[in-house]
Amino acid sequence: MSYKIHDKFAVKAKEKGYRARSVFKLVDLQKKFGMLKPGQKVLDLGSAPGSWLQGASELVGQKGFVVGVDLSDIEDLDLPNVRTFQMDILCEEFIPFLKERGFVPFEVVLSDAAPLTTGMKARDQGLSHELASGVLRVAVQVLKANGSLVVKIFEGNETPSLLKEAKKHFSKVQTFKPVASQKESKEIFLVARNFHN
Fold it and tell me: Does 28 belong to an annotated binding site?
């Protein structure tokens, strides 16, 4: 776990036992949109180190269930309503993997995933768009009717095309920047609700 000194969200995360400050982005999103409810089944893509899993676990409660997937290994959270897997969410085997285990469908798909950045703004925005597009492709295959998607993107020239694609599948699509996002960051979240196929 790494925390920046003098970052109030990092300090708060450490005090409350969360693995990363990013959990407070989920808290902000939940306050604004209220997409997570007790008893829901949730898929968290790109979930290492696990703070969104911790937050989602609390919000869906004991009757809910959260599946977390990441390329990196996720250290055991010791939460009874959370299962984690190390896997590439963009590989062909991923959707069958979820279906074979009886996880599909989900009420909510979350993703705070970011690509490995290069430091080149345009390139990083392009990589973020590719990853978010992949998350959207997964979401439309695993969501229940009226389900919700929350996915991080680095705002750039390709953002409008991603929003347009999302609007083909969701009746409510908007973007939101949580207070807990780093001020200098170009990250925003695409929030898509009322999934329809």
Answer: no
Domains of the chain: 20-183 (3.40.50.150)
Angle at 132 between CA 137 and CA 107, to 5 degrees: 55
The residue-averaged pLDDT of 103-128 equals 86
CB 156 within 8 A of CB 129: yes
Using alpha carbons, list the distances in angstroms from residue 99 to 39, 96, 138. Answer: 19, 5, 12
Question: Could you list the active site residues?
Answer: 152
Note the pLDDT tens digit of each residue in 141-166.
Answer: 999 999 999 999 999 899 999 999 99
DSSP assignment letter at 174: E
Encoded tokens for 62? 């004991």
Instruction: Please answer whether residues 147 and 195 qualify as being in contact, where contact means their C-beta atoms are separated by less than 8 angstroms.
Output: yes
76 is in an annotated binding site: no
pTM of the model: 0.90
Known binding residue 50? Answer is yes
Say whether 52 counts as a known binding-site residue.
yes
- Estimate the crossing angle of helix 23-33 against helix 51-60, to 10 degrees: 40
The mean pLDDT value of the chain amounts to: 89
Q: Is the pLDDT of residue 5 over 50?
A: no
- CB distance 152 to 123 below 8 Å: no
